[in-house]
Design a protein that fits this description.
The protein is built from eight helices and seven strands; from the N terminus they run βαβαβαβαβαβααβα. By secondary structure, the chain is α/β, with parallel strands linked by helices. It has a single domain, classed as Spore Coat Polysaccharide Biosynthesis Protein SpsA, Chain A. It has a seven-stranded mixed sheet with strand order 3-2-1-4-6-5-7, sandwiched between helices. β2, α2 and β3 form a beta-alpha-beta unit. α5 runs parallel beside α8. It is globular, with a radius of gyration of 17 Å. Pfam families: Glycos_transf_2. This is Glycosyltransferase. InterPro entries: Glyco_trans_2-like, Glycosyltransferase_2, Nucleotide-diphossugar_trans. Belongs to the glycosyltransferase 2 family. Keywords: Transferase.
Length: about 240
């Protein structure tokens, strides 16, 4: 990875929520596209993840509030690039594929792009997590009309537009809230396939039935939210347009 100097802003910022990912970080950061900036959001790691990320040239942000959404939003707040990507920090997804995901936003083909996970082995995606994902896709279709197959953790959108969504969830519902509010605002949401590998280390969410249940509970709460009375569409964000 090539660190971008402050005088030469990165064309894309990559937000990497991180909780005890010391083993995966070297591989993940080495795969960040050249010239793009990695923002590692340390969410209370005790294994030295923050020091490793900093030593490898990443911009490190500390978010003491535990929660996937809290970490993601702290990264979004720290971002300065026009385009912001999100990617898991556990080596299950290859950051080298981010240009494929972000490319549809950069060329104006879509407003929010999700990486649809395609497991390369059965170990990559536990059965309970796959079943939960199928049910979630059905609920998203019923709530928004979007025919998505996966709530892909690898994703890209424009920074100002994401801020305009006024995302409030700070737990597992954050990625879903982003999709639901984007759909309510009339965004063009697209999917592109990305390989999904067994993660390095133990999952904090979908690695257990209990973690999956908590995630589904958070997401059901998001799906129960009423659409905003006057949602801000991407086309109306100041300084943007299609």
């Amino acid at each position: 990875m090539i660190e971008t100097s402050p005088s030469s802003p990165a064309p894309v910022d990559v937000v990497l929520p991180c909780l005890d990912e010391a083993e995966a970080l070297p591989w993940v950061l080495d795969r960040i596209p050249s010239g793009w900036r990695a923002i590692v959001v340390d969410n209370g790691s005790t294994d030295g993840s923050a020091d490793i990320a900093r030593a490898l040239g990443a911009h490190v942000v500390h978010e003491p509030r535990r929660g996937f959404g809290a970490a993601c939003h702290a990264g979004l707040t720290a971002a300065t690039a026009d385009i912001v990507c999100f990617c898991d920090c556990d080596a299950s997804l290859d950051p080298a594929l981010l240009p494929t995901v972000a490319g549809l936003v950069l060329d104006g083909s879509a407003d929010l792009v999700l990486g649809r996970r395609r497991p390369v082995t059965r170990r990559a995606w536990p059965l309970h997590a796959r079943l939960a994902n199928l049910e979630l896709a059905r609920l998203i279709r019923r709530r928004t009309g979007l025919r998505l197959h996966d709530l892909g953790p690898m994703r890209a959108a424009r920074r100002e537009w994401l801020h305009a969504l006024d995302l409030t969830d700070r737990r597992s519902g954050y990625p879903l809230q982003m999709v639901v509010r984007a759909a309510d605002a009339g965004w063009r949401v697209a999917e592109t396939e990305v390989p999904y590998r067994p993660r390095t280390g133990r999952s904090k969410v979908t690695g257990t039935w209990l973690g999956t249940w908590h995630a589904v509970r958070d997401m059901r709460a998001v799906l129960a939210e009423r659409p905003a009375a006057a949602p801000v569409s991407a086309a109306t964000v100041p300084g943007t347009g299609r």
